[in-house]
Amino acid sequence: MKNINFFIPFQDEAQVSQTIANLKAQELVNKIYLLHAGETPAPSKVLDCEVIEVPGLNSTAAVKAIAAKSDVKYTAISTKYTSLSFVLFALERMECLIEDSGASMVYADHFNQSGDVRTDAPVIDYQFGSLRDDFDFGSLLFYRADAVVKAAAKMDIDYKFAGIYDLRLKVSQEGVLEHINEYLYYDVETDTRKSGEKIFDYVDPKNRAVQIEMEKACTEHLKVVGGFLKPEFKHIEFKDDSFEYEASVVIPCKNRVRTIADAITSALNQKTSFKYNVIVVDDNSEDGTAEVIKKFVGDPKLIYIAQDKSYHAIGGNWNVALHHPKCGKFAIQLDSDDVYFDENTVQKFVDAFYAQNCAMVVGTYRMTNFAMETIPPGIIDHKEWTPDNGRNNALRINGLGAPRGFYTPMLRTINFPTTKYGEDYAVGLRVSREYQIGRIYDVVYNCRRWDDNSDANCDVVKMNANNLYKDRIRTWELKARIALNKK
After folding, report:
1. Rg of the chain on CA atoms, in Å
2. 125-154: average pLDDT
């Protein structure tokens, strides 16, 4: 039975010809529609397929146009200007599993094909907290048509960029998005950047208009599912006078012999109107890092902690520093590969805590190479964070910025998860559930990108593991916020 209507992006005949031929060979495909968003109108038909003019492929208008043509049982949407081909009976498998699982949408693992080179492109399971607008479903979304129609009918905000994202969120409110962990089709990967370059797309200034729309769509979704938090925060007092130091710079490290001296020097050279120290936690380095740290132990401001052989990771190293009796009232982050922008960073952080009455402060950083030269995207200021809605939007984006500072008594009640990735994001979400997060929009930090960064060039398995964990963090946090609202 021909019960799938297929929608594919259209630029020109050459771009769609192979995909159309492949789709026409599929017994289940009923009609093929071409979505065109060019400035110059396209022909009304191309290769016997109707062309639908839309203002943008990801717009609300495009979703409503798709819904209007979703007149058979299933709606399949291709999201890339690339050729699609299928393994044998792939569409039959998707149809079978959307029925067996009762899902509203299914998506599958696939292959990336570039010339004669084929690589695996597995994706991850969708969770309740998978709110990232850049969640990777692959390029083929297979929906129940009635789910698309119902979601489109609820769209009362006209987005230019967030329509497809809004569709996914609205469909997820009513049904399940099911991952088929089978390789069912072939796609062409056109974005050849390293993973460490892609992760900053959402803060690229040229994408600001897109991000504003994505935030709006996510916020409206949170209101529907009960996870939206109003801008009402716990007041915080800084009355605890039991601290010997006003602030501590915390530097967790492992095998950073090339960079740790720069980080420590940057921390020790801070100029402040108060007493501060630097806590360096070495997690069993094996490359000479400990020997470099020991060269600084004569400085009275330095506290050196050598971890035992048990498992700590970055989060565990932070917890050891945080609960050290010499830890200051405010704990300020400095990663072992990075340096502060100048000698005023610690002072600016402490001033921000008192001025903004917040439990956590996030600064602005500059992306550099190993030689400290500015590299794209340059300054990362996270100006998408607003005092009123930042903690809701935090569930959509993949990070809150750097460097981060914390009010120590508060953080000691939360602690970091004992993990080496996402620990800072987890804490930021948890803090923002109750407290205001302050911001410094001056550049206070140089974030150095080099081959040994933890996320510089992850393979797909590692990237999937990282994203799966962050989605899990979002899921836990979203459930906690819903429970909080119910109280």
Report:
1. 25
2. 97
